[in-house]
Amino acid sequence: MSLPPQPLSPLDGRYRPAVSALGEFLSEAGLNRARVTVEIEWLIYLTEHEFAGSARLTPAQIESLLSLATSFGQPEIDQLAALEATTRHDVKAVEYLVRDRLEQLGLTSTAELTHFAATSEDINNLSYALTIRDAVTGVWMPALRLVIEELRRQAVLYRDDPMLARTHGQPATPTTMGKELAVFVYRLERIVTQISATSYLAKFSGATGTFAAHLAADDSLDWPHVSEEFVTSLGLTWNPLTTQIESHDWQAELYAQIAHANRVLHNLCTDIWTYISLGYFTQIPVAGATGSSTMPHKINPIRFENAEANLELSSALLDSLAQTLVTSRLQRDLTDSSTQRNIGVALGHSLLALDNIRGGLDQISLNRALLAADLDDNWEILGEAIQTVVRAEITAGRSSISDPYALLKELTRGKKIGQADLIAFVEGLDIGAAAKARLVALTPATYTGLASTLVDYIATPPAGSAD
């Protein structure tokens, strides 16, 4: 017995609640709604300029036409499916849908301005630019900013909590948990700034980007100006030099930046996972949740692990999109047609990861006692401070030690030493009394430099970050 129809992608099945907002823009229906919008806006533009003697539409007629896009829903989706079954061409089906609405309004004489002098890619590239822009700025970016704001909150909260650092996995100069989280805030905010500056390019220049049909219809108009005015009226950036397609370079740039954000987030997940493994973060139990099917004591860091997997999938898809979309054979091939239908999948996996990260960050708590114990068990890390102070004392003429690095290497390398050992060693050093006093007073927990102060660089969200 066969199963009833099932979603093939987990984004449309198991994970749909986390990513459904993207479907408003990057689904087939979202794309068709944008196509309808572009076709109608172009027709309205032509009639407003009374092209070829066409009559201006009344405000009521314009409102009724635009409602085809603003109220686009299941009836229009079904009608387009029926039209495409006959036309075997998705954009032609959209054109016929608009023509049908014109006939309903008694505007048959205006119908020939539908899709006038436009190739399918004129409609498609504008539609993709609109839907990608709205999906990124209206869905994906707000989700990223929520993660950044939670990281910022925790960075400020934990700014003064000293923590043993680990370079190459080995004990190293202490930091604070807040400063380490602040690093990720700073990295992600740079990428947000870059993505926010994206120019969503579009063209509207005919079959090979030459305005040939436009000029044949009316050689008195400045068609590049008309094209630019129309494209920019939709809130997009005009591209004057293209083939049949807009070259997609802006898409490649955008996807590279989103993939970069994914990889920074992946780094965040592996770090948080490691902190949980070390016990630096404890996970807050969720009532009723099962951590392991056989080991009831476990709370697995599954949100961060799931996020890692989805970030990897998203980045792989975004890399493929960026690579494929920048090439089109001669003036046009259809490789981009199938490729661009996967933009929603690529962003969907990233959005799902952001949802997981946010949930994971909400379920961790800093284990200050373990952080303190770990620091107290690693007094040898103060070797860096001691040899640096000795170097300064030698330079100032207050010490005759010849090789401070070797001296500290002999004391600390591969060894565990305690506070008493270190104090005794410092007391025997040939350095000034003030320097000696500073070193004797130093502990692993206080050897954090300016870590707490550095959090100030991200303590306040940048202006406009909530837009």
UniProtKB/TrEMBL annotation:
Keywords: Lyase, Purine biosynthesis. InterPro entries: Fumarase/histidase_N (IPR024083), Fumarate_lyase_CS (IPR020557), Fumarate_lyase_fam (IPR000362), Fumarate_lyase_N (IPR022761), L-Aspartase-like (IPR008948), PurB_bact (IPR047136), PurB_C (IPR013539). Pathway: Purine metabolism; IMP biosynthesis via de novo pathway; 5-amino-1-(5-phospho-D-ribosyl)imidazole-4-carboxamide from 5-amino-1-(5-phospho-D-ribosyl)imidazole-4-carboxylate: step 2/2; Purine metabolism; AMP biosynthesis via de novo pathway; AMP from IMP: step 2/2. GO terms for biological process: IMP biosynthetic process. It comes from the Bacteria. Pfam families: ASL_C (PF08328), Lyase_1 (PF00206). The keyword Lyase applies. Residues 13-307 form the Fumarate lyase N-terminal domain. The keyword Lyase applies. GO terms for molecular function: N6-(1,2-dicarboxyethyl)AMP AMP-lyase (fumarate-forming) activity. Residues 328-448 form the Adenylosuccinate lyase PurB C-terminal domain. NCBIfam families: PRK09285.1 (NF006764). PANTHER family: ADENYLOSUCCINATE LYASE (PTHR43411:SF1). Catalyzes two reactions in de novo purine nucleotide biosynthesis. Catalyzes the breakdown of 5-aminoimidazole- (N-succinylocarboxamide) ribotide (SAICAR or 2-[5-amino-1-(5-phospho-beta-D-ribosyl)imidazole-4-carboxamido]succinate) to 5-aminoimidazole-4-carboxamide ribotide (AICAR or 5-amino-1-(5-phospho-beta-D-ribosyl)imidazole-4-carboxamide) and fumarate, and of adenylosuccinate (ADS or N(6)-(1,2-dicarboxyethyl)-AMP) to adenosine monophosphate (AMP) and fumarate. This is Adenylosuccinate lyase.
